[in-house]
Amino acid sequence: MAILPILSAPHPVLENCTRRVRVIDATIEKLISDMTETMYAANGVGLAANQVGIPLQVCVIRIPEEDHVRVLINPSIIVRKGERELEEACLSIPGYRGLVKRSNEIRVRAKDQNGKQLRIKATNNLLAQALEHEIDHLNGVLYVNHLVDRDSIWKLNEVPEENAEIATEEILNSGNS
Fold it and tell me: Is 105 labeled as catalytic in the residue annotation?
């Protein structure tokens, strides 16, 4: 297992759709293992393959209250219901949080690391948010595309005032390429 470097926005790999996984082989198994270790090392809830530079439809999610990692291969959202506003952050946009609009309920279809078909339903919880966030990544969409408004993003650490506006503008524009 290895800890992989996480790409930061704006990076072209983050803004493009990923490719479907055709065969779950040793290469994909190693990717899943490395992504899981990387997610843990970064204290993340989820990680999509394109965040580590691999343009494949693979993501991992670990909800803190659960004792297992969910592996999703070729995931797709088949149902979205309702809307809610919540705070969100991203390992590819370090140092920022934003207020975003997300679905109340999500239903997802995917395969697990063994190729078994999965159907996941999540309602009004962190899993619903993480599923939507990571599947968005695989479709080249960053959470800044779901901000309530352009002023709904903030920097967690203080930066010199002359750099703060430029940095925030760069982040906002990375979701609009």
Answer: no
pLDDT category, 176, cuts 50, 70, 90? low
The per-residue pLDDT for range 42-79, each reduced to its tens digit, is: 999 999 999 999 999 999 999 999 999 999 999 999 99
pTM (2 d.p.): 0.89
Query: Domain 12-174 maps to which CATH number in 3.30.200.20, 1.10.3720.10, 3.90.45.10, 3.40.50.2300?
Result: 3.90.45.10
Q: What is the pLDDT of residue 174?
A: 62
The residue from 83, 134, 162, 170 that is catalytic is 134
> What is the H or E stretch that residue 102 is in?
strand 96-102
Those residues with Cβ within 8 angstroms of residue 90's Cβ, 6 or more apart along the chain or in another chain: 9, 96, 133, 142, 143
